[in-house]
Amino acid sequence: MTDVLRGTGGVSTGRLREKFDRRVGRSSRSPLAMWFWEIDRVLLLMALFLIAIGLIAVAAASPASADRYSDIQHRIAPMEYFWKQAGWVGLSIPVMLVVSMLPITLARRLALLGLVVFAAFLALTPVLGVTVNGAKRWISVGIGQFQPSEFLKPMFVVTTAWLLSFRAKDQTLPVVLITGALTAVIGGLLMLQPDFGQTVVFGLIWLTMLTVAGTSHKIIGTLLGAGVGGVVAAYFFYDTARIRIDGYLFGEGGQVTDTYQTDMAHSVLTAGGVVGTGPGGGRVKFLLPEAHTDYIFAVIGEEFGLIACAIVALLFLGIVIRVFVKLLDEEDPFRVLAAAGLAAQFGLQALINMAVNVGIAPSKGMTLPFISYGGSSMVALSIAMGLLLAFTRRNPYLSRSTYNVRYGG
Length: 409
Description:
Layout: H1 2-24, H2 31-38, H3 41-69, H4 80-100, H5 104-128, E1 130-132, E2 135-140, E3 145-146, H6 148-165, H7 175-191, H8 196-212, H9 217-237, H10 239-249, H11 256-271, H12 296-326, H13 333-358, H14 375-391
Antiparallel strand pairs: 1-2, 2-3
Helix pairs in contact: 3-4, 3-12, 4-14, 5-6, 6-7, 6-8, 6-13, 6-14, 7-8, 8-9, 8-13, 9-10, 11-12, 12-13, 13-14
């Protein structure tokens, strides 16, 4: 009887294996199988790993934020932020996978449509937006709020890549001026909120894509100089920028809160030492504003140590490096520019957030991708990662083709 059961089990296992190979095996040509073998699984795993770390970090930060934002009339449950974030993750991962399956042409067209839609929302934000900490960056949609600039970033990258890719066909096209005008319009709308940090990010992404597109050094140098001039002008004519810079550099301008945030973030970050206090063991985090959003990197440092912070930083660096290495043999200018821009988006946003947390940059109000709490940010970043996975897909049959000739040196 045992032998019979074993035999039956072997047949069942064999059928399951045969069914799996038929659907997603290397020999299968089904859409699911092609997606599975085309997708950069290492890049996908790094993104999922960051999301998992984010859930753990939000769980660590949730009690501190719940305690800080509770009052006599309204008491927030200690793990409320964690459960909400878990729900957003449950929505975002399928969104990322679906977007990663899109054909390149369809992904580009949807991004162009998304640019128009979210640019319109961005223009309406100063009028219809909800004021949070003195800025109107959010629009309420009844069931919640969303930040148009977060969704606009990947759409801007894909649209800019599409425009810049025409230069490969015709060098006389004024694509630098066109994309520059687009960046300037978006920057102007962001400054109305005001959101100086996101304006800087959009500008840096544009410069990165111009560099990848092979724009002359003179133009890049001129634009960098104009950017520095813009920051100086913002200091003299833009009160929010001047106050934050003064508060960061000199502790002046009445911005005790800004100085307190950056100083406290540094204290929380280093409170756990190399290995951290352990999950739930952090105490300094209860003094930190926005522990679950802008300063969650500091909470990771306190509870899981500086080693964990280094791992998070290396994951972001790994994503950027892997994308640029994969692009070395890519011949499609649009794919190159789109993937490079999306990788720059992740890298720059992570770099700015971590720089604020360690105290080498003034407070920006910018989240850490996939780590910080926030449904709007999580869904938007999942769309961006899905697009990045779509643009870095590779046909697995090309490398096995008898007509595919490789240079051997």
